[in-house]
């Protein structure tokens, strides 16, 4: 099995390391200082108290005929279209888009070719320190790696991808409606990111009770808005946020914000990617407004 990880940030490098250690032939597409680091020092990552070096190849250019079974696209949302334009010239059949975005999948396939997009979302977080990756997977009960066909069909490539994740001990789930899943995900993460940006002390935003209540209220409002425009909340547990009182959810959010989970998987990403999160903020609320105005959701 050959895999190309297109994007050498935290997410891309963590999946590259985990897949390579399970026996997958992994190549990482990188640029600039990260490419130089991967070529000279390798992909170094922590495992417990030790530092390991993953057996991956690093490239800075992609040959059109260099075929991979899967391409994992792990770039920022505002880099997706440029990346897909480059991948349109490559023969690899499947591009796993591990990206937070409101772009219609059909728009992506218009760029790279019909049938190539397999939408997904990672379950991971962390950071780099002195070119060493310190990252981990999110707990299975919170958010496993999620993926599914645009059509919702069960396919051989879904089964193969699931097998690859299983061998690499990466928790995963296959969903029938990735579009709805990603929109529901944004309904929660946008208010969470906003809370960090509005906090007087972002590192300890969870201690601000008023802010946590505002965050809980926004999440509740978002999920109710999605249901009002005909979007089924997924996973089903998201329905709880639409019905529970904000006063009950707020202290729970506060504890999550102040936990190690909150630091690794919420705070670090929000503070590293404010431009991306603010674009997603604008896009999400514009999407809801359009759906309310037109009476239908954008596909």
Ordered list of secondary-structure elements with their pairings:
Layout: E1 2-6, H1 10-21, E2 25-29, H2 32-41, E3 43-47, E4 50-54, E5 57-59, E6 70-73, H3 80-87, E7 95-98, H4 105-112, E8 117-121, E9 124-129, E10 132-137, E11 145-147, H5 156-167, E12 172-174, H6 178-198, H7 209-228, H8 239-243, H9 246-258, H10 260-272, H11 274-294
Parallel strand pairs: 1-2, 1-6, 2-5, 6-7, 7-8, 11-12
Antiparallel strand pairs: 3-4, 8-11, 9-10
Helix pairs in contact: 6-7, 6-10, 6-11, 7-9
How many independent structural domains? 2
Q: Biggest sheet, strands in spatial order? A: 5-2-1-6-7-8-11-12
Beta strand count: 12
CATH class of the largest domain: Alpha Beta
Runs in which pLDDT lies below 50 for 5 or more consecutive residues are none
Query: What structural class should be given to the helix and strand makeup?
Result: alpha/beta
Report, as a whole number of angstroms, the end-to-end distance.
33 Å
- Element-by-element helix/strand order: EHEHEEEEHEHEEEEHEHHHHHH
Biggest beta sheet summary: 8 strands, mixed
What's the overall average pLDDT, rounded? 94
The CATH topology of the largest domain is: Rossmann fold
Q: Using the 3D structure, state the CATH architecture of the largest domain.
A: 3-Layer(aba) Sandwich
Cα-atom Rg, whole angstroms? 19 Å
Helix content: 40-55%
- Overall body shape: globular
Pfam families: ApbA
Protein name: Ketopantoate reductase
Domain Ketopantoate reductase N-terminal: 3-121
